[in-house]
Amino acid sequence: MAEILFSSWGGEVVDNRGKEPQDFETVGKVSLPEYFQQDEEIKALIGWYGIVLRSAEVNVVDLCRTYMEEVQQQSCGKCFLCRIGTRVIADTLGRLCRGQGRPADLELIAGLAESISESSKCNIGQSGPLPLLHALEHFADDFAAAAGGAAVPAGKYRSRLTAPCMDACPIHLDIPTYVECIKEGKFQESLEVIRERLPLPGVVGRVCVRPCEEHCRRANLDEAISIKFLKRFVADYELDHGREPEYQVVPSAKTGKVAIVGAGPAGVTCAYHLARKGHQVTIYERLGEPGGMSAVGIPDYRLPRQILRHEVEMIQKLGVTIHYNTEVGKDVKLSQLEADFDAVFVAIGAHLSSSMRVEGEDAGYQGFIPGVKYLLDINSGIDPYPEGKKVVVVGGGNVAIDCVRCSFRIGKEDVNLVYRRTEKEMPADDVEIHDAKEEKVNFHFLTQPIKVLAENGKVVGLECIKMQLGEPDESGRRRPEPVEGSEFVIDCDIVVPAIGQTIDLSLLEGVDNVKTTRWHTIVVNEDTKQTENPKIFSAGDCETGPGALITACAGGRKAAFNIDKFINDEPLVATENDYFDKFFSQVKVYDPQEEIGFIGGRPRYQLKMLPPDTRKYTFDEVEQGFSPQEAMAEADRCLRCYRVATIAVG
Predict the structure, then answer these.
(1) In this structure, what DSSP letter does residue 440 have?
(2) pTM to 2 decimals?
(3) What pLDDT is stored for residue 222 in this prediction?
(4) Residue 647 forms beta bridges with which residues?
(5) pLDDT > 70: what percent of the chain?
(6) Within 10 A of 121 (CB to CB), how many other CB atoms are there?
(7) Average pLDDT along the chain
């Protein structure tokens, strides 16, 4: 089954029909998985980029019928020819499959397919009919037989709507729809689309790492749509106009009591979806406010605390209870929650800093402050070390960038960042790096710390060595190697290691059947977020390791739906959506080399920012949001890149 008989995917035609297997040409444009789910082979794929046929058992006419019925169902109907034409094509293909076709039908569907593709304003109409045209050209005999009255047996198929941005988004927001609502001035409807999956639009609209924008087809023309800030706009618009969300609650057949450990993004997202299903949810949070690491680890100039608090307060109005200043494992035992509740969701953040493994870091020197504690103190209104004025932060991620940018804002005079690779390899957000440079942070690339220097128990410097890049390591990045004899010292009185975070899993003591990894994360079933202890689920940083906020939200949502199933005595298994996620990860939805066929030249709207010399000394939010006119104009740049995929299985 692994060999491909025919492919027109991406415009590359490979036709192996009638050839011996040893003579088959390879298909380079697509990697088609052999199985959709266990014991269900993938026999064919038809979608926006063409047709891939693996089994001669698949009747291409019936494959096209099923696909075009899905295209017609997903058409928004705003383009008349797409709305009516796809219906005519689907109905005509249905007649052909029933043995009621006519030869003239083939000319009809070919003409309609070409006209729809040429005239449609969005990708459903533009790309939807293209594989049908491929089929008519390369499988003419099959269509001729159907048009001559030969009935076609129905196959077994699965279809899914996606888009490059939706696929890249961990929580799979319906981005084209919420952006189009903004274009049409339907701001509240846009928020409703977002909140079907995500209860924190104002938070994510400020601090998301934007995987959706990295897969935006508009970038193939000029620049990606400002998806992140459009989300922020509709959240801010609601808040500015004094409105509150109206959440629909549809109780499950059986409801129960759920304890959630941690009021961070994963925890509150899980609580939101459980509460909307009628469950009684209680959150235990060790801090005195909601948000977890997003509250104490992200500075207010990026994420104002009142935005986070407001969105969590709206979730509490669904009946969610939050116990603050309550640490599970100390104030209350996890085993007690397991006994008292129907299910427990563990969503603690990564609040511990990783070790640099350099001489002097464990000596207790004044001025040596781990990155997480440094940000926690600053976000609590405390200068972590008032005596110090010269700071060196070690690391290349967003926490490191937050540390250096915050240092100016608490009055530090000389701020440095040390990173052992080049800027190209830095995992931090490019925008954050750019803003730090504008604020005059001193970057030391290809530099590795080797010793913390101190006098009288206080930090006085950081000894470093220059590095050069060697061969790639397991991460795919070139491994940094020391340059012999290149040691030097950076004078400083504060050293802040920010090379990574770890999770304190001591709360698991006394609980059975919860496995952990050597990276101090909790082992769960990927598809259900359930541990080997049936009552305990987990997601967020404590399951994935330190990661993106939107990924934690996605994990919380998935856990909520599976906790609901667990309480309702339903089997916890992977869903069709889960299998399609894996399918699309192999059959790529976004092609950065795709020729869009339009004229670009409409750059994205940029948010206005405070000048660098002003913003570096304030914790006020540095970016102003879009005006309604700017948001609508930016949304108008969206190409509405919906795509339909249909697979034949058996």
Answers:
(1) T
(2) 0.94
(3) 95
(4) 45, 158
(5) 100
(6) 13
(7) 96
* pLDDT above 80 (res 633): yes
- The terminus-to-terminus CA distance of the chain in angstroms comes to 11
Q: Which domains does the chain have, with CATH numbers?
A: 6-164+642-649 (1.20.1440.230), 257-351+503-573 (3.50.50.60), 353-501 (3.50.50.60)
Q: Helix or strand or coil: residue 457?
A: coil
For the stretch 476-531, pLDDT in tens is 888 899 999 999 999 999 999 999 999 999 999 999 999 999 999 999 999 999 99
14-15 vs 6-7, strand pairing mode: antiparallel
Give the other-Cβ count within 10 Å of 625's Cβ. 21
3 state DSSP class of 255: coil
Does residue 479 sit in helix, strand or coil? strand
- How buried is residue 574: exposed, middle or buried, by Cβ count under 10 Å (0-12/13-18/19+)? middle
pLDDT in tens, 337-395: 999 999 999 999 999 999 999 999 999 999 999 999 999 999 999 999 999 999 999 99
pLDDT over 70 at 598, yes or no: yes
Residue 53 near residue 60, CB atoms below 8 Å: yes
The residue written with tokens 């803003």 in the block is 435
Tens-place pLDDT, residues 81-129: 999 999 999 999 999 999 999 999 999 999 999 999 999 988 999 999 9
* Amino acid at position 92, single letter: T
The Cα 495–Cα 363 span in angstroms is 13
Distance (Å, rounded) from C-alpha 596 to C-alpha 219? Answer: 10
Average pLDDT over residues 415-442: 96
Q: Nearest 10 degrees: CA dihedral of 402, 403, 404, 407? A: 120
Q: Which residue has the tokens 């035609």?
A: 13
3-state DSSP of 47-59: ECCEEEECCCCCC
Assigned token pair, 558: 């998935």
Q: What element of type H or E holds 204?
A: helix 201-207
Number of residues assigned to the chain: 650
Amino acid at 240: D
Which token pair is 500?
A: 């990574």
3-state SS, residue 411: coil
Residue 56: is it exposed, middle or buried by C-beta count within 10 angstroms (0-12/13-18/19+)?
exposed
Q: Is 136 helix (H, G, I), strand (E, B) or coil?
A: helix
Instruction: Give the CA diameter of the chain.
Output: 95
301-321 burial: b if 16+ Cβ within 10 Å, else e: bbbbbebbeebbebbbebebe
At 60, list the tokens.
Answer: 């291409």
At residue 1 the predicted structure's pLDDT band, cuts being 50, 70 and 90, is very low
